[in-house]
Amino acid sequence: MLIMILNIFLQCRTDFTAANNFTPYIFHVQNDGYVGINTNGPTDQLDIRGVGYGDGARISSAKVGNWINGTGLESDAMFGHINFGRAAYDSANSYGCAIRQNEDGSTYLNAASTKQIDFCIDNSRTGGIASDGRWGIGAGITAPTTLLHVGGTAFFEGDVLIKGVLKFTGPASTDLKIQDSIIMLASENNSDAYDIGIFGKYVTDGETEYTGIFRDASDAGKWKLFTGLVDDPAGPNNIDTESMGFTPTTLVLGDLEAQNVYTNLNMGIGITTPAVALQIEKTDAIKIPKGNTSERPTSNAAEHRGYIRYNSELDIFEGFGAGNAWNTLGGVTDIDQDTYISAENSAGADNDEIKMITAGSERVRVTSTGLVGINTPSPTEYLDVNGNVRCISFITTSDRRVKTDITEIKPYKCLSNISNIPIYRYKFNEMYKNSCGLKDKVYIGPIAQEVEKIIPEAVSTSPKSIPDKITGLINYIPDFKSIDNNILIAQLIGSVKALTGAYVQLDTKYQKKINELKERINILEQR
Q1: Distance CA 362, CA 353 (A)
Q2: Cβ atoms of 83 and 92 closer than 8 Å
């Protein structure tokens, strides 16, 4: 080891050199104050040359590279570039440094005017700050276009506060995605003076217009849709529906769940241009409200008219209307539902019968074969009346042209038949009176079973159900007998003919006798 002191430098050197150590100079001090370690040609106040790239000095708790202007900054710690830090005193670059930490703990990154700051990992750029102060994050963002320019996905766990305008210029297919969150509008509002909403801009026929949805502060806070606005609604924060060209827009939705829907416009289902208040263009069905009688809505005044619903208790469609009362729909019925016309015994029965009910009781039935029963549920003739009939006359079909197998019955035979039919005085039993609504009085006539023995053609037999309208019991008679009075009338006509013939014969016989007696009297008187 050799120590040399000359008038121009102090040098400590050795002729021994370790591997990768290219100079024998250990310590070198020049007369200009420059100090070199591991170099005999220092280019700064303290010039330390490492054995290899990346080696150098390790200094703990020291001030490095004090500001060249000194005063007021002597307690700062800085690192300055070899050229940037040696600028002329009080020049623009003399106030520059690469890294600086003030005595109050503030830390700065700094670059010269028109220069940028780069951040690197493994000597690869990951971002930086441009000379105009714009930050670029991402390897490819070398010229950021905004104050913060992120070239990739950014993740924020806390709040993001934006005082200016938020613009999104991504591709149309991924314009804006929000997951598992709620968007809050106008969080700084402290009154109900402003409209809030979301809107968009479009151009039609060369004119810029706006469309969106907003809460109208001037109309009880109702949410409304708009389109065709000619002025930007973001400026005044109020949608001027008159001067700004407000018009209702078309709303297309998938599933929609709402408590109440109000509109003074037409609504369409399956059609985009409804012509009336509600127009449905579908092929399936609509389902209306259903419930029992006690679940009907309040309905006691004219303004309630027009309600329709399905009454699950009565199994009918019903509506509230005339007389401020509920009535069945699609049929004839009265207000209290005990007088009506029914086409089925029960829903889906398809028994093809018509029943007319009054005061809760069936009065008329038309069967699927066209038989009409009055006061009977089981008619056996085209008109079957279970009770008395009052009319002026009965007209019976008797044209020879619709008859065949015509055989005359001798009058004496008719007289014989009629003479052998007993006639009785009788009353109907309680069940039959209750069924037919007959009075408790005496009737006169034959008995069908006895008539059948003498004139079997005059009696018909068929099953019959006789409902007792008082007790509700039904008496079924499988071989109920009825008399065809037309046949009895015909028999009576034959009987009259027989009696008339007999009278004529007797009259002729006795008239001859009378004449003979008159002649004898005349002869006797002449004597």
Answers
A1: 12
A2: no
Reported pTM: 0.42
User: Strand pairing of 361-366 and 290-291?
Assistant: unpaired
Mode of pairing for the β-strands spanning 2-5 and 9-13: antiparallel
Report how far residue 47's alpha carbon sits from residue 28's, in angstroms, rounded to the nearest whole number. 10
Pairing of strands 424-426, 148-150: unpaired
Calpha distance 219→522 (Å, rounded): 129
Considering the domain 408-527 in this protein, what is its CATH number? 1.10.10
| pLDDT classification of 229: cutoffs 50, 70, 90 | confident
State the Cα–Cα distance between residues 340 and 333, nearest whole angstrom. Answer: 4
Q: Which stretch of DSSP H or E encloses residue 17? A: none
Among residues 91, 64, 92, 69, the alpha carbon closest in space to that of 80 is found at 64
Q: C-alpha angle with apex 117: 114 to 120, nearest 5 degrees?
A: 150
Three-state helix/strand/coil letters over 383-405: EEECCCCCCCCCCCCCCHHHCCC
456/412 Cα distance (integer angstroms): 18
Query: For residue 461, what are its two tokens?
Result: 């037999």
pLDDT tens digits for range 432-470: 888 888 888 999 999 999 999 999 999 999 998 888 888
Residue ranges of the chain that CATH labels 1.10.10: 408-527
The span from the CA of 289 to the CA of 311, in Å, is 9
